[in-house]
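Anyone? Bumping this.
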Amino acid sequence: MKTNLAILLLLSLFASGFTMQTKKKIVFFGDSITQQGAGADGYIKKMDSLLTAKNQSANYELIGAGISGNKIYDLYLRMDADVLAKSPDAVVIYIGINDVWHKRTSGTGTDPDRFERFYNAIIKKLKERNIAVYLCTPSVIGEKTDFTNQLDGDLNQYAAMVRNIAKANNCPVIDLRQAFLDHLKTNNPENNDRGVLTTDGVHLNRTGNIFVAQQMYNALSKDFIK
Amino acid sequence: MKTNLAILLLLSLFASGFTMQTKKKIVFFGDSITQQGAGADGYIKKMDSLLTAKNQSANYELIGAGISGNKIYDLYLRMDADVLAKSPDAVVIYIGINDVWHKRTSGTGTDPDRFERFYNAIIKKLKERNIAVYLCTPSVIGEKTDFTNQLDGDLNQYAAMVRNIAKANNCPVIDLRQAFLDHLKTNNPENNDRGVLTTDGVHLNRTGNIFVAQQMYNALSKDFIK
Amino acid sequence: MKTNLAILLLLSLFASGFTMQTKKKIVFFGDSITQQGAGADGYIKKMDSLLTAKNQSANYELIGAGISGNKIYDLYLRMDADVLAKSPDAVVIYIGINDVWHKRTSGTGTDPDRFERFYNAIIKKLKERNIAVYLCTPSVIGEKTDFTNQLDGDLNQYAAMVRNIAKANNCPVIDLRQAFLDHLKTNNPENNDRGVLTTDGVHLNRTGNIFVAQQMYNALSKDFIK
Amino acid sequence: MKTNLAILLLLSLFASGFTMQTKKKIVFFGDSITQQGAGADGYIKKMDSLLTAKNQSANYELIGAGISGNKIYDLYLRMDADVLAKSPDAVVIYIGINDVWHKRTSGTGTDPDRFERFYNAIIKKLKERNIAVYLCTPSVIGEKTDFTNQLDGDLNQYAAMVRNIAKANNCPVIDLRQAFLDHLKTNNPENNDRGVLTTDGVHLNRTGNIFVAQQMYNALSKDFIK
C-alpha cells in the first residue's frame, strides 16, 4: 500500500513537473495598451481564448508586462525584474507610441537613434538567453485614414524603424501599424479619429483587442505556437 | 506745330496713364519661401519669365511680400502695411509651414482653430476691397514620399484646412502640397528627404521655384491672367 | 400740475442722462482668468465691491472681456468687436500665461518678438482712441517660491517684457507677477505649487481673486478712479 | 653585476607595479561638457593641473567619459562599457542639462520620474562595486542671474532632484548650479546670457573649465583625494 502510494505520488509529481516543463511562457512587454491587454477583455485574454479554442491553452502561459506611459528605455530598465526573472520562452514587444506621442504632450519623447539603440539592447539580452522575440510596430495615434492624424509622419517613421530593427536582428515582426491601416481603410469610411479599433485614438476597444490578439496569434502560430 | 506737339504729349501721357491703370498688381504674401521667391531665380522671378514668354509681362506687376519665419497671424498683423497699402488686384497667400514646423522647433506653432480664424480674417479684409485671393496649401517639410517625414500628419491636416477655407470663401486653391506629393512620387525614387524640389526639405531649389511658378501661373491664368 | 410733472420727468431724464455720460467704462481684457473673473466671486466682481465700499460704484462700469485659452494675438484679433465696440475709457490687459504655457502643453505658445509686436499693436490702437491702458504682468504657472516651477524662467522673461512694453508706451503696469511672488514668499511656507492664490497653479481661487482685485484697484485709483 | 642588474630590474618592476596598484582611477561621466572637458583646456585637464600643483598627480588617473547630447538614460545604457569596464575608484556624474534642454529643442527631454529612476539605477550599480560616486547638479542653460533664462524653472527642479538623490544615496554632491549662480551674481553685472563661464550659455569657456575643475577638486579632496 505504502509503496503504491509513494509511486502514485511520484507519478503525480512527475506528471505535474512534466506539465510545468512544457508549459511555455510568453511575456507581453509594453505600455498601457498591454497593461489593459492583461485585463478583462484585453488582447492577452483574447489570445488565451484563441489558444483554448484551438486546444492549445494547456501548453502556454501568457504573462502581461505592460506599464502605462512606458517608452523603449523604460522597458530596458525594468526588463530584468519584469521579463528575465520570469524565464520566458518568448517575448512580444509592443512599444513606441509614447516615444512619439510624448514629444507633443510633454516634450519627453524618444529620439530615433535612442529608440533604435535601446531596442537593440533589449533584443540582445533576450537573444542571449535564447528567448524568441517578436516585435510589434506601434499601431495608431488617431484612426484617420488619410494621414492627417497629427503624429502620423513620426509614427510611420518609428514603425519603419521597428521593421528595420526586426530585420537586422532576424526577428519576426507583427506589423500592427500596417494591419490597423489596412483594416481602417475599409472600416472607417467616415474618417473618424477614434471608435473603430480604439476608444481614444490609441487605447484598444473590444474590437481592437480581438484584432490585436488575432494578429499576434497569426504571427506566433507560424513557428512558436504549435 | 506747337499744337501738334502738345497733342502728342497729351496722347503719350494718356497712353502711359492708361498703361499704369491697366497694369494689375499681384502680391505674393508669405514666409521665407516667398521672401526667397522674390530673389534671383525665385519663383516670383520665374513667374515673371512665364508672363514675358506669353507676352503678358506688361500687364502685370508682381510684388513679393514674404518675410522669413512668418505664420498666419504675422500676415494678419502686417497686411495693412505690406499688402493693402499696395492696392493689389490679386493676392497669392502661401503660408502654413512655420505654423506646423515651429511646434517642433520652438513650441510656437499655431493651433488649428487660430490658423483658420486668422486665415478667414485675412481673406475677409481682402475680399472687402474686391481683391482676388488665391490660397496655396503648404508644400512640404521633408520630401520623403511614404509619409514618414516627421510632420507629415500635421502638415496634411493644415493643407486640408486650407482647402476647406478656400472652399468656404469661394477662393481658388493652388494645391501645392498635392502637386509636390504627385511630383515627388515620380521624381524621388530613393525617398530622399531633400534635394528634389527643395534644398533642405522646405526651401525651394531652382527646380522647385520653377515648379511653384508654373503651378501659380496655371491657377492665375484660369481667370485672373488673360 | 401737468407742467410740473413734465419738468420733473425732464429733470429725471436729464439726471439719468448725466449719470450715463459720466459712468466710465473699464474693460478687463484677457484669458480664462479674466473670463472667470467676471463670474461670481471673480476678481471683477470683487473690484466692484471695492468700488461700492468706497462709494464709487455709480461712476464706473466694469466689463469682462476674457476668453479661455487666449494669447496676445487672440486679443488683437478680437479687440475691435470685444473692446473698441464698447467705447471704454480704460482697458486693463491681463495676458501672457498661455503664451508661455502652451509652448509646453501643445507646442503653440508665442515667440517673444511676436508677444511684443502684438502687444504694442494693441496699445497703439487703444491710445489712438485716448483709452487709458493698464498692463498686468502674467501672474504664475505654479506657486512654488524657489523658482522651481517648470516655466518660471520663461514666465519671468515675459513679465520683464510686459514691464518694458509698459515703460516704452508710458502705460502704468500692474505688476501681478511681482505681487504674487512677494505674497507667496510669506504665505506659502511649504512651497506648494497650488492652493494659496490659485486652485491649480494658474486660475485664481477666492483669495486670489480678492488679491488681484485689490492690486488693480490700487493701480487704477492712482489716477483713473477718483 | 648581473645579479645587481636583475635586482634593479626587479625593484623597478615592483616599484612600477606598486604605482600601478595605487594610482586611483576617477571617471568623469557626462555629456558634451565632459566630452570637451577631456580636451585641451578642458576641466579634466585643469583638474590634472591642480593635482600636479599639489604633487598628487602620480596617484590619480583622470578618465573622460563624456558624449555629446547624452541624457541620464544614455549614461545608464553605456555605463558597463564606458565606466565599469575601466574599474574606477570614483565616478563623477555631471548630467541633466540635455534632459531639460531637449524638451524645448526636440521634444525629447526626460520626465522627472525617469530622471530619478535612471539616476538611482546608475548609483546602485556603482555602489555595488564600492565605487565612490559624486553627483554634480546641472550648471546652467543661460547665464542670466534674474531667473529669466527660459529653462531656469525646470533646471532648478532637476538640480533640486540631484541634491535629493545624492542625499538619499548618501553621496557627496558637487553643487555646480549653486556655485555658478553665486559666481554669476557677482561676475555678470550686465545680466548677459553667455560669456562669463560659458561660450554659448551651456558649454564652458576657459574660465568655466577652471571654475568647474576647482569645484570638483574641492569636493574630491574632502575625502577621496589625499
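Late reply, but here is one note on the structure posted above: The mean pLDDT of chain A is 93.
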